Amino acid sequence: MPEYCPVCRIPTDDNSNLLPFRVPYPFVRASQHPCSVLIKPTNGDFLHDYNVTQDLHIGVTNSLGKVMEFDRCGLHRDRTNDWNQSLVVYKAEHQQSLDQWDYILNVIAEQDCWTPTRYNEETFNCYTFALAFVKCLKAGPISQLASSKTNFCEAFVSPRVTNACKYINLYRRLRDSGYYVNRQS
């Protein structure tokens, strides 16, 4: 904590309203979140590279925390280390879901449609793969919302990204200037 406020120059020890606090870090390592649906930037990471105009990539972890994902090169099961700064969109909580998770994920992955030739950036992509899996889970509201890309995004993706963007904005301001002043009216 600086000795003086960088804006008004009042000593910081004179104001008990300036007590340090911790902002929750929204990002996770996918490997530490088995049976989850996660998102990350298609390129780079959230803190340093992401802005809201860029595409996101979505994947699914199995019960061991290994990420399964689909992109222009086909289906991947070996790039979990690329998911060290991701957001959990959905995590299975009920034992019944956990028991079926890997089975359904493997059934979806074994379909012959997840090939590089079938991939289309707009119409048949990582989101298609993740939603196909979530629909087959038959896990109540999330599976019903997975029938619509827009509804699923509004209910599960957008709230997480909005929260992450607030954190990213704060992080970048602190990184660039060393402090942040929240001017409340």
UniProtKB/TrEMBL annotation:
Q: InterPro entries per the record?
A: MKRN2OS-like, MKRN2OS-like_C
List the residue ranges forming a coiled coil, or say none. Answer: none
Q: What is this protein called?
A: MKRN2 opposite strand protein-like C-terminal domain-containing protein
This chain's source organism reads Ranatra chinensis
Please report the stretch or stretches of sequence annotated as the MKRN2 opposite strand protein-like C-terminal domain: 20-174
